[in-house]
Amino acid sequence: TKMIRTCKQLENKLNTINNTTDIKIKKDGSMYIVVMGGYESDIWGYCLKDLVNELKGLETIKMVYRSWTMQGMKVKTIKGIK
Q: Model confidence over 37-59: pLDDT tens digits?
């Protein structure tokens, strides 16, 4: 597979695998995370390369809803870059 060196490349790969256009890579303070709507990945990296390495080989990526809801914590998964 081609090396992922930019946020855009990682976004494209995750969006293609998950058949969506909603997935973005966001820099949050000093960390990179995967976001989708109100959801954020519970996996992060200090640099994009760290995030890519964390996501490699993952069957699924756990996404946690940013805001606490009356139902408690909302969690969903997206496909990883296995």
A: 999 999 999 999 999 999 998 99
**Contact indicator for 55, 61 with CB cutoff of 8 Å:** yes
- Alpha helices by DSSP H, the chain: 7-17, 48-55
d(CA 51, CA 67): 23
Token digits for 76?
């969903």
For residue 74, the 8-state DSSP code is -
The two beta strands, 23-28 and 60-65, are unpaired
Beta pairing partners, 41 = 63
* Amino acid type, 7: C
pLDDT of residue 62: 96
Contacts of 16 (CB under 8 A, 6+ apart): none
Q: Which is nearest to 13 in space by CA: 29, 26, 25?
A: 25
